[in-house]
Write a structure and sequence with these properties.
With 294 residues, this protein is of the alpha/beta class. It has 13 helices and five strands.
């Protein structure tokens, strides 16, 4: 049995993964729901699916495409598969136990414990591909811990896109949504970059580094570079992702918005003070090999 080509976007939050997902989803061979890790909460947790809308504009509970996937999953899995959040690879029903376990777990050491969770995720991917009649799956879950689990599912042929963003811009975005200092946000950026680099190298992953800024500045060339890496037709995509119906978790305002342009977000230049920019550059200088200040 051939393995499923599985594209995984590894990135920090606020780094452009939603934009990249929408663009890749225009390719006729690629099927996606965005962040696969959130599927369980949107589909099998009472009340969770009604909290947000699919990128098609419908509530998750009312989206026929989304519900079609859920029904197919239920028809193939047994009740035990739904006892915990399998798309987050959670073994326990109690959140605190999952957090404690997550700190020191080893997927390979405890593979038998995760067997049902891996099976459920494999079925989910298979049914999404079958419903969409496409051969390649795209997952924008971002988390490096998720990637560690996915590597243990033998049916998946993983290809990783390591998407990163200028630390000044990423820190600025992080400050909007977290009660952090600039120091804390910059330290977090560095810590996560170290985690990703170590994981990709030690895990022997097949990966391609991609810059958010380059994707925005030269989207046509960058998309072709990415598709060549994925060994897919590098002309069979569209930069007008808003012109196609898509069923993706994420920023529905991006998908349904009136603005048709792909533009780099540079609001950090106005939001951050010169001293804050200098501090960020000092803290992150060891991990800015992808960037040249502009």
């Amino acid at each position: 049995m051939s393995r499923v080509k599985y594209i995984y976007i590894l990135s920090q939050r606020y780094s452009g993964s939603t934009l990249l997902s929408f663009l890749l989803a225009t390719h006729p061979d690629i099927a996606t729901i965005g962040e696969r890790r959130k599927f369980y909460n949107k589909s099998f947790q009472p009340g969770q699916g009604s909290a947000q809308r699919c990128s098609c504009g419908e509530l998750f509970a009312d989206c026929e495409h989304w519900q079609g996937i859920s029904e197919r999953i239920r028809s193939r899995l047994e009740a035990r598969h739904f006892s915990t959040n399998f798309t987050e690879f959670e073994l326990f029903e109690t959140p605190i136990l999952n957090k404690l376990w997550d700190r020191w777990f080893s997927p390979r050491l405890f593979r038998k414990l995760y067997a049902d969770l891996y099976e459920a995720n494999q079925v989910l991917v298979e049914e999404i591909l079958a419903l969409n009649e496409k051969p390649v799956f795209l997952d924008s879950s971002k988390s490096y811990k998720q990637l560690q689990h996915l590597q243990e599912i033998e049916a998946f042929d993983l290809k990783v896109i390591w998407l990163s963003r200028d630390p000044r811009a990423q820190v600025s975005s992080a400050l909007k949504y977290n009660s952090w200092t600039v120091q804390q946000a910059a330290d977090t950026w560095v810590a996560e970059m170290k985690q990703y680099e170590t994981l990709l190298q030690k895990g022997g992953f097949d990966f391609l580094p991609v810059r958010y800024e380059q994707l925005c500045r030269t989207p046509l060339e960058e998309m072709r570079r990415i598709l060549q890496y994925l060994q897919l037709d590098d002309h069979a995509f569209s930069l007008d992702f808003r012109g196609q119906e898509q069923h993706i978790m994420g920023n529905k305002s991006m998908r349904l918005g009136a603005d048709r342009k792909i533009e780099e977000r540079k609001d950090w230049q106005e939001r951050l003070k010169p001293a804050e920019v200098s501090l960020i550059e000092t803290i992150t200088q060891a991990y800015t090999k992808f960037y040249s200040p502009s």
